[in-house]
Amino acid sequence: MSDTTYKGKIGRLPRAMRDEVCRRMRDGDSDRRILVWLNADAEAKKRMETYFDGQPLNGSNMSEWRAAGYQDWKRQQDRDAQTEKLCKWAMNAVDGKPGDKASAIAAGQLCSALEDFDVEKLKDLLATDPSNHSEIIKSLARLRTSDASVKNAEVNAVKLQQAEEALRQANERLVMERGEFEIRYCQGVLKGIADAEAHRIAGLNISNDEKIALMRKHYFADVDALQKSGAVKLPD
User: Fold this and answer.
1) Report field, pTM of the whole predicted structure over 0.70
2) What does the alpha-carbon distance between residue 106 and residue 93 come to, in Å, rounded to a whole number?
3) Mean pLDDT along residues 189-200
């Protein structure tokens, strides 16, 4: 039942109690039995004290509620049942399968669109102008297109996730390779510092080009000799 404001005694009760009154009416409980329950309830007494100077509920209150609030409750129950049927129909309309996220989304869109729609009005509409049937079919076709778009979006999302994972792995490899290079470089620097000849060359009062030439001769003299002898061939 909606939270519509009712002015009568039963209408001032909490929603849960109003719903219970309606259920008991639907199940055939007599007004007398319902009144015995209500007038003995602490919350109902509190509401009567607040709004009606402590006057208990009576048969007239029951009659008024049966003619108004109870009828609203029954209509809401019918709408709820209709909505449930519409949602089941919507899932079938989009060929929904258990666990199919895309179909569930599409069915939810259709169900939402139809939730407040009056089926009897739809029947009258089709009876008055059968051409409206084609418009309804077109609407369903558009919904199926929307369903396909959702599926395409999911495929693209998977591809994007795969690309992001590949990029992450590439970044990890780059970090590892850079770390290995830095280690080898530092090892070379330490080796050079421990090398007395390299240290002597570094301290000479000559140009950097001359220092590099001497360093090259110091570290690669054996390679040059092998190249001259023809034992090895280095790329140009």
Assistant:
1) no
2) 9
3) 70
